[in-house]
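Exercise 7. Given the components listed, write out the predicted structure of the assembled complex. Treat all entries as one system.
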Amino acid sequence: MALIIQKYGGTSVADAVRVKEVAKRVLKYKNEGHDVIVVVSAPAGTTDSLIRRAYELSETPSKRELDMLLTSGEQISIASLAIAIEDLGKKAVSLNAFQVDFKTTDEHTKATILDINTDIIREKLSEGNVVVFAGFQGITENNEITTLGRGGSDTTAVALGAALKADEVEIYTDVDGVYTADPRVVKNPKKLNTISYQEMLEMAASGAKVLHPRAVEIAARYGIKIHLRSSFDDSTGTIVKEKGDESMEQVKIIGITSTKNEGKITLSGVPDKPGIAAKVFSKLAKAKINTDIILQSSSVTKEFNNISYTVSIDDLKEAVEISQELKEELGAEGVSYDANIAKISAIGIGLKTHYETTAEIFDTLAENGINIDMISCSEINVSCIIKEEDVNKAVRALHEKFIEEN
Amino acid sequence: MALIIQKYGGTSVADAVRVKEVAKRVLKYKNEGHDVIVVVSAPAGTTDSLIRRAYELSETPSKRELDMLLTSGEQISIASLAIAIEDLGKKAVSLNAFQVDFKTTDEHTKATILDINTDIIREKLSEGNVVVFAGFQGITENNEITTLGRGGSDTTAVALGAALKADEVEIYTDVDGVYTADPRVVKNPKKLNTISYQEMLEMAASGAKVLHPRAVEIAARYGIKIHLRSSFDDSTGTIVKEKGDESMEQVKIIGITSTKNEGKITLSGVPDKPGIAAKVFSKLAKAKINTDIILQSSSVTKEFNNISYTVSIDDLKEAVEISQELKEELGAEGVSYDANIAKISAIGIGLKTHYETTAEIFDTLAENGINIDMISCSEINVSCIIKEEDVNKAVRALHEKFIEEN
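Answer.
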């Protein structure tokens, strides 16, 4: 008998028909003798309509009240699923964050999990219940209701898995696993049977939306296996675990991702003094703007530098404003920005040992007439900033060269 | 500076426009320097749609999960109203049952309030917040979520008023007060400026739907003034308090109510033995069926009795079945029932001193050709069971005689 945690997204609990299907799937596992905890999101559409409601009432709804408003959505899902499971003749009990002391920090709309009291969940499981738990939400030490932000329900499921030492956390979604590239871009993407935490993190951080990095980070820290699979059929999906299959170690690159979700800012003609870069990035950090790729280039005279960096497109406007201030403060020449960029990334633990691959990536892009603007490399990730219009061509070229031909 | 509790029903918070109107009204009081606690119901329609959802999933949803499901509705309302108040520049904070330890019994869907921890509410008020509290819901000692059943939000408001020793509890509704009779039946109903708890209780129990008896009972026990008023204008409504205005004491009857919400059952030919009536009503009580009016009549031979009683129309089917069992157990002759009855009630503290009035009521009905089937009198209430088809005629006749002509 195993302890299995299953997470279903909003589409899977959108209406009564879907909820009943989830109930049946849950019971298949329960009937095999497993203990099952189900984590659900709000019904599809509910969160959006609640957010719309909030902004009808105020242009600047407080984050505390947004959390209070949005967490009503998961409550609908957990009660609905518990009712559907009970209707199939099995015991079920829905539980809310406050009922299991699902403690988080007090940063409303983007809280971090601190601690989970597993006593109540274990008690309910031992009584033979399927436990249906509300994803995305938590409470603070002062009983304030919080939400975990993006990827919240995935994170809830994996955190529960860690706290309860679950045998597996299954994340049900509308795709059947992690692919070597976006199937909408590439003709012959391959589904990965396994992927390491590290690779999955790089994939997620580089544009693969299938699993949120926060969830992967927790899974990695506690060694929890995640099974990412489709809620539409019973096929095996992709297992995210400590190491990918051994055969995979021979593979240089397991995935090509891309994102158009960044913008680039350049501070040009910055007088070359020590501590300039630190000043730039500490000012951005204070405004809670994350920079991704950073490039500092000297001018011919060596007296001036150009500093370029990329940020999330959501932060671009604010980052440009801050850079204008920095221009004045530092006596720089100008600020320019470009929203029409894309980042493509080639990811694989094999990069660690295949030193030649990085150069081959640049070659491949050059052969296809794609100009590289900025480069960022980690041990298992080579990322390039290119023109947005080149992105699909770049993904196809790299996928063909490093995945299809291998 | 007073402490005022305002309760708004689902219609008042149905959409953003309505919620903003409520926010403005709340702030009028806040700006006058009062501390304000607002109790809100779920947005109109939400509870019904959630119940529909539950019954799509199961013909017999568990009461625990129904409570979990339904309480999401009030959470939407409290967050929405808090956002709207904050948007007008004032501090507001929404609070849920678990956040203020609003303790109830564990009878799901019809829990009774046990205790309220007022510390958090007082703290939030002292920080200058309007407190927006979720009506209808509570939690048990084991952190299970409960609901208070019918009239729940009114009850929440009055219970908070009692716990916090509020100066007034205002119940906002779609009528502007308590009337001497249903304006849809009677041409010239009078709005009552004041009414005593006792009279209000009898009115509510006898068909006036304007305020739930549970809320009135709590108000009476703790001496909390209720101001029942319209959410559409600023006019004064009806104050429910210990004693009605002194002038009212001279009035024999302050209201005529009617309800078609009862059915009558007769067990005929019951052998006359001691303890028979007790047996009948303890069996009904065990099935949690409340009987209203009871009539035991001896037959001419005195060897057999007929026992008639009325129950809520919702319980009629089950009560008939139980009566069939009783027929066998007691060796009675037959069971008959009648769903086409109505109860009319004349209510007033004046009845205590005007002994002749009861007879005048029967006379008035007789003069109008209305047959009285059963009679039940308390100190301040004379109720008659009549044919359903006679009900409006009866209300008009009694209203004319005892209210319009006085």
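Discussion: The interface with chain B takes residues 16, 19-20, 50, 53-54, 56-62, 64-66, 68-69, 71-73, 75-76, 78-80, 82-84, 86-87, 92-94, 96, 98-99, 143-145 of chain A (CB under 8 Å). The domain at 3-173 of chain A is CATH 3.40.1160.10 (Carbamate kinase).
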